[in-house]
Amino acid sequence: MGCRRNPKHYRLKFADGDYEGLEVTMRSVSIGEMRALQGAGGDEAGRDGFDRMVSLVASHMVGWNREDENGQALPPTLESLEDEEPSLINLVIDRWTDAVAGVSAPLEQPSNSGASAPVESIPMEALSPSLAS
Q: Region annotation Disordered: residue ranges (predicted)?
């Protein structure tokens, strides 16, 4: 009995900016797909490269909470993505590749480095004269 593949799902949450509140769930990619995704964004790839990226995103998008102007839920399909701005697609790709690569999302709240030590706790005595002088 072998070890069966079980693709991971990554929930991408957008907490600020133009897409605040958006959540997109993406299925993991293979190594070959990841390499194609990273190589498809270059200037030399042009429209064909961007089309491949959008198609790959659509084929791996499990769900999202995107709505149209009337509040109707949009299905996670290529047709829905084609109505979006390129900036959204690029942002999803960036977050998705970070998640797949294991890059941690930024902390929601700034990390507290702790309180600074009070000045009076540091001994400020004069040094004893050196025995060598």
A: 104-133
